[in-house]
Amino acid sequence: MKHKGSESAEPQSLARIVITDRAKILLKRLKERHGPLLFHQSGGCCDGGAPLCLPREEFRVGARDVLLDVIEGTPFYIDELHFQIPVNEKLLLDVVASQSDSFSLECSDGMRFVTSSFDPAECSALSGTKS
Predict the structure, then answer these.
(1) Residue 76: strand pairing partners
(2) Is the dihedral of CA 41, 34, 90, 122 positive or negative?
(3) Does 12 fall in a domain?
(4) What does the pLDDT look like over 4-60, one tens digit per residue?
(5) Alpha-carbon distance 92 to 114, whole Å?
(6) Domain range for residue 116?
(7) Does some domain include residue 38?
(8) Would 82 be classed as within a structural domain?
(9) How many domains is the chain partitioned into structurally?
(10) DSSP H stretches of helix in the chain
(11) Which residues, 6+ apart, have CB-to-CB distance to 42 below 8 Å?
């Protein structure tokens, strides 16, 4: 599914990304501070990747960007060259403490969003729950 920068008024989740509670808290704080946001990951997909979190109106989504998911109302785009997530895997969006010099908004809080891939079936088997 490819989207060339067109945003709907109410973006819907595609269930490809799972966000941790601490990442939700940080994302909420950033949205309150900066307004509507978007994520863009152009490299490093997927384990240990570091998506940029930017004000939505300050980033131009390119023709080669793919809408991977919408997390908490925030679109998450990825470069089509890195759009190789196996069907049975999902991405986990988390945050870590980091002193980065990136343009990503969370860096001013001493944090960094990071992604890693996982297989929900494996997690369910370990926890005894279904995803």
Answers:
(1) 39, 69
(2) positive
(3) no
(4) 444 444 556 668 899 999 999 999 999 999 999 999 998 655 566 889 999 999 999
(5) 8
(6) 17-127
(7) yes
(8) yes
(9) 1
(10) 21-34, 120-127
(11) 52, 78, 79, 82
State the Cα–Cα distance between residues 68 and 91, nearest whole angstrom. Answer: 10
What is the rounded CA–CA span in Å between residue 106 and residue 104?
6
Residue type, 99: Q
The position carrying tokens 């088997």 is 125
Structure tokens at 118: 């996982």
Domain membership of residue 29 (yes or no) is: yes
Q: Which two tokens stand for residue 93?
A: 């969006």
- Domain of 98, CATH number, reads 2.60.300
Query: Each residue of 54-101: pLDDT tens digit?
Result: 999 999 999 999 898 999 999 999 888 766 665 567 889 999 998 777
Q: Hey, what are 19's tokens?
A: 């966000």
